Amino acid sequence: GAVVSQHPSRVICKSGTSVKIECRSLDFQATTMFWYRQFPKQSLMLMATSNEGSKATYEQGVEKDKFLINHASLTLSTLTVTSAHPEDSSFYICSARDKDTIYFGEGSWLTVV
Amino acid sequence: AQSVTQPDIHITVSEGASLELRCNYSYGATPYLFWYVQSPGQGLQLLLKYFSGDTLVQGIKGFEAEFKRSQSSFNLRKPSVHWSDAAEYFCAVGAPNTGNQFYFGTGTSLTVIP
Fold first, then answer.
1. DSSP codes joined into one string, A20-38
2. Strands (E), B16-101
3. Chain B contact for A54, CB < 8 A?
4. A43 contacts in chain B (CB < 8 Å)
5. Do B81 and B112 meet the contact criterion of CB atoms below 8 Å apart?
6. Better-predicted residue by pLDDT, A51 or B59
């Protein structure tokens, strides 16, 4: 199957700083990527859909100015958590669409201290 | 509206026993159906998918799933569970020809006891 890589796998940042997470499709071109947030022992919460070359589409309740998404190429989407606060600590997962299937990255643990 | 239901939040089985995880969906036409597995602290791995054709699909790690249109179900099965199968399992529905719409169930947590 297609491979999606996410980096970093774990990051710790100070409150008030920004942190960037990268999502790459390694062996296919992804015009569409998705960003999710997952709380412990819960399902995936779709945050936004990222389309190459255009603005991301955010789900209701997700602050687009706080969670900046950029999809500048067919193999890379980035999620930047701006002015991070402890409540932003979570597991963030990206996925990329290859034809009619989506493939997931390994996830990124963000801890804001 | 499209939706996915996984009725079992948590299932415990003995190693070597058979397994069936339930998934029901609501969709106006034949959807694309998926099962993913998530080990603790990891991303999701695709186990198998159904688009059309044979309603019994084989996946990786010895898993299979059967699409039953009359029951709007896509249950995941494995004849003999291994301790390494302990994980969270997610059923998902993709809407054909819409491109971007995927819906996930709330997941079923599988515990395997020796």
1. EEEEEESSS--SEEEEEEE
2. 19-21, 24-26, 32-38, 44-50, 56-58, 64-68, 73-78, 87-94
3. no
4. 90, 104-107
5. yes
6. B59
Answer whether residue A72 shows pLDDT above 90.
no
Radius of gyration of the CA atoms of chain A, in A? 13
For residue A109, which residues of chain B lie inside 8 Å, CB to CB?
A: 41
Token digits for B22? 């339930």
CB B40 within 8 A of CB B109: no
The pLDDT, as a whole number, for residue B111 is 97
The tens digit of pLDDT for each residue in A34-56 reads 999 998 878 889 999 988 888 99
Contact B7, B19 (CB under 8 A): no
Q: Which residue of A has its CA nearest to B45?
A: A104
